[in-house]
């Protein structure tokens, strides 16, 4: 089983991880990750109430000096979340307000664009390649590549969806007694329920045995081919919010005012006591692990555990979610047969289940706990690049690859098939994404379909760039791979054996930088030349423009500029010892911007002088890309920032 810790960071890798890297292998062979280990984010750790690694305006224990030139666009999701479902513990979907959809890949949460801003209320599925989301007039279906709306014309508000464990049917339900069933052709047809009940939840034991609950303390049951509406015992006029079944056949329901009920040995519903004080809290979610072990969750931190024959109030572990309100709960067993559970709620609130060890004297008594998590992408973003159309791509640890149509737009996950793997660099060519990783794999997304190349004799790859219609990839051992538009990858001889870290192109000329001061130039004829810079540091990133002009930064804080022409020379223009630099780009007005450790910015024209702007945000900044509409900077723990237009 993959165990979740306090920050959801300790997970084993899936089989696909090997395509890019070994589990836990840093995406770069440089000293970048060594610097990170000393908390390059400026003591602002995820889960630290005194700091915020994304620099999104929350309080921090870091003295950030003068007003920052960076505005946070960090991937912290604070929308109300309504439901969660997963095919396994490394494939979980979260849905919520304003069309928010997040996907958990076993390492991090990433946002998915499903093409709507409507509120999303329910999610369920059959497998990694088949899932459904419902909302106001929506039934979105995931086929493993994309989401499409299957809702019939005139569909109203749908609040719940369920597929029984045998996969025999798909049922969606909502307001006005609506129950829709999906047939084998993919068409949704209304069931004859003869009810006006506003259904909040639905559960199918199989295709013909179904329960649904809703407002007015009432429920709907499908049995013997007929739907019938019934009062739930003791529910009065309360709204019932959830109904679930255990693996051994017992049904549970919950609702407002701490309402709880379960079926007895004769399948008859009986109300059970919440034991939640004189004013029981509203309950919104249920997970029944067995007929004698269940969880309920709800408003104001309500967490109840059913053990044996009664419910008892439990306590949320951790710090941040103790009083949050939760609206959805999902639990199941993973592919190894071990339990995993997730709860989501208002303001991006979340909990994760941590299974304890059974008590030898009583197997029902075990140290199960629910732990805090925040709805945010905690992957370290390693690189951000711009395409010819002004679109952006950023990538990093945990297989995260995000794209945005321009520098002002939201970033969404591209769903690369590399769960848990680190991605060293990424590029856009003709609107298609390309990725490279430490194991020598090269991934390509064209038309929504991913393909994976593993060229022969490749080592760790760390840089990629478009060269006109071609591509160049660089990596360890001085390797350079060249791909003509639709051809195979061909190795080119560079004459060096050092690690190459970054590649940049301008027209038909390319520049590559690497360790021990390595700088290479490739001319239009494909000839490689080693250039002298006078700097023997660890080059981290290079950018190029115009007629052979280029700029590069080192991890020792140096910034170097190359003059124009085939025989141009390199000159060191700036140095910020102790403030390591990892990214550099040129803005449309000619200003060069370098980024690095502890939010460092170094700016200036290529002719100089350069200004150091330290401590802009409490984050290690690793990449920058500039379009005609502005510059975007990326960094640790999902940090995405917008650079100010005016730079003093």
In a few lines, what is going on in this structure?
The chain is mainly β and 648 residues long. 1% of the residues lie in helices and 47% in strands.
Overall description:
The structure is a single chain. Helix content is 1%, strand content 47%. The chain has one helix and 58 strands. By secondary structure, the protein is mainly beta. Strands 1-58-57-56 form a four-stranded antiparallel sheet, with no helix packed on it. A four-stranded antiparallel sheet has the order 2-3-4-5, with no helix packed on it. It has a domain at 381-643: Kelch-type beta propeller (Neuraminidase). It is elongated.
| Main beta-sheet strand count, sense and barrel state | 4 strands, antiparallel
Give the helix/strand class. Answer: mainly beta
Q: Please state how the strands of the largest beta sheet are arranged side by side.
A: 1-58-57-56
CATH class of the domain at 381-643: Mainly Beta
Number of strands: 58
Oligomer: single chain
What is CATH's topology name of the domain at 381-643? Neuraminidase
Mean pLDDT across the residues is 88
